[in-house]
Write a structure and sequence with these properties.
- With 426 residues, the protein is mainly alpha-helical.
- The chain has two domains: 103 residues; 201 residues, no CATH class.
- It is built from 14 helices and no strands.
- Helix 2 crosses helix 4, helix 3 packs antiparallel against helix 4 and helix 5 crosses helix 6.
- It is elongated.
- Keywords: Coiled coil.
Length: 426
């Protein structure tokens, strides 16, 4: 019996077994069904062992082989069913995996949506916090406004009371002003007359102002000419100063030869002869220097002790004589001033008196300078007046400015504009 290889193996095997075993196939099938599928392999092995070890007849051998084939067929069906079961399980697992992937995709989308919603919620929370801060600030401002409202209410009541009081006072003054209307009419007439007189005086003032402007222009021109003359005079003074410095050496030697404060008559005549050859200096205002304790007369009324001939501190007479030989230092407007040269002259003439103190130097400065310099020295603190170096430095800083001017001099240089009223000008 031939079986086509293209047919199903299980169906062909069933047909072959039916042909071989006949009615005995049902008995074999019943025995196979009674055996568990896991024991089919052992059952087949036993049948094969029995068929090989025993000498069976052809019919029994055929039955035994049929039994083996039936067992193999049953095992094949079992394996086929198992494969189908595994395939179904695989399909179920694949479907479960697909469902899980779909769920994961849905969860991913939900996670992204949740993140977006979380960001929106976070922004909303931030906005709510800011809004809460603003609300708290508004509440605080509202409380302050309530306090201000109470204060304003009190002020309004006070103002209303003051307004009522002022209204009553104004009403009383209004009644009184009715009686003063006549006086007002008379005052208006006087004001009109005063205005007319003011216009007349304004015209006269304008004419006078023009005349003053002309005079100021002439004064300015005169100041320019005076400045030129003053510069020439300064040059002459410098030449005179050089000559007097040379003369100072002779004077210092003469002062050293004085006895008891009296100069030698021949030396004095020689000095006067030299001074006649130069321009006479401006005679300074004589100052009274306070005498020190050594110059006071004795208590018993005895004669005043004479200064020793070899004393190195100048007397009042020595300082007055030195002052006559030093050009006066008078700072003025628009004139070059040299305070350093003036102070060098002071130091030069006092070189012959090494024991000269600050009081002697300040006395000599005041005797050879203007009132402006004296006032400047008096304004300084006692500590500065006792420090000659600091005082000299302050004098140089104060009076070495060639553009030094007073408010009065500067005011006279200002002219009235054409479109400027008298009130604006003054």
């Amino acid at each position: 019996m031939s079986v086509s290889s293209e047919d199903h193996p299980a169906e062909n095997l069933e047909f072959l077994l039916t042909e071989i075993l006949g009615d005995g196939k049902s008995t074999i099938d019943a025995k196979i069904r009674e055996s568990p599928p896991q024991e089919l392999g052992d059952l087949v092995a036993d049948c094969v062992t029995a068929a090989v070890s025993k000498k069976l007849k052809d019919k029994e051998l055929v039955k035994q082989l049929g039994f083996v084939i039936s067992a193999f067929s049953a095992q094949l069906k079992y394996e086929q069913d198992r494969v189908k079961t595994l395939e179904r399980e695989r399909d179920a697992q694949l479907e479960a995996i697909e469902e899980r992937e779909a769920r994961c995709a849905n969860l991913t989308v939900q996670y992204d949506e949740t993140r977006e919603e979380n960001g929106l919620l976070q922004m909303r929370v931030t906005y709510l916090e800011e809004a809460e801060d603003q609300v708290n600030q508004l509440i605080t401002e509202n409380k302050e406004l309530e306090k201000s409202k109470v204060l304003l209410g009190d002020k309004i009541r006070v103002l209303e009371h003051d307004f009522d009081t002022t209204t009553r006072e104004l009403d009383a003054q209004l009644h009184e002003s009715n009686d003063g209307k006549k006086l007002l009419l008379e005052a208006e007439g006087a004001i009109k007359a005063s205005k007319a007189k003011t216009k007349l005086l304004s015209r006269e003032l304008d004419a006078e102002r023009e005349r003053v402007n002309d005079l100021l222009q002439q004064v300015a021109d005169g100041k320019v000419a005076t400045a030129k003359v003053q510069r020439q005079l300064n040059l002459t003074r410098r030449e005179l100063l050089d000559a007097r410095r040379e003369l100072g050496h002779a004077l210092s030697s003469l002062s050293m030869s004085e006895a008891d404060g009296d100069p030698d008559s021949d030396g004095e005549d020689a000095t006067r002869q030299v001074l006649r050859t130069t321009d006479p200096p401006v005679r300074p205002r004589r100052l009274r220097r306070p005498r020190d304790a050594s110059a006071d007369p004795p208590i018993d009324g005895g004669p005043t002790p004479a200064r020793p001939p070899n004393s190195n501190r100048p007397s009042n007479r020595d300082l007055d004589k030195i002052a006559r030989n030093i050009p006066r230092f008078e700072p003025k407007f628009d004139e070059p001033q040299n305070a350093r040269a003036f102070l060098r002259d002071i130091d030069f003439y006092l070189k012959s008196y090494p024991m000269a103190n600050v009081e002697d130097k300040i006395y000599l400065i005041k005797a050879t300078s203007s009132r402006l310099v004296n006032d400047f020295i008096e304004r300084q603190l006692p500590q500065i007046r006792n420090d000659y170096t600091t005082l000299c430095r302050l004098m140089v800083d104060e009076f070495s400015d060639a553009l030094h001017q007073t408010g009065f001099d500067y005011a006279h240089t200002i002219k009235q504009g054409k479109n400027e009223s008298p009130q604006q000008y003054y």
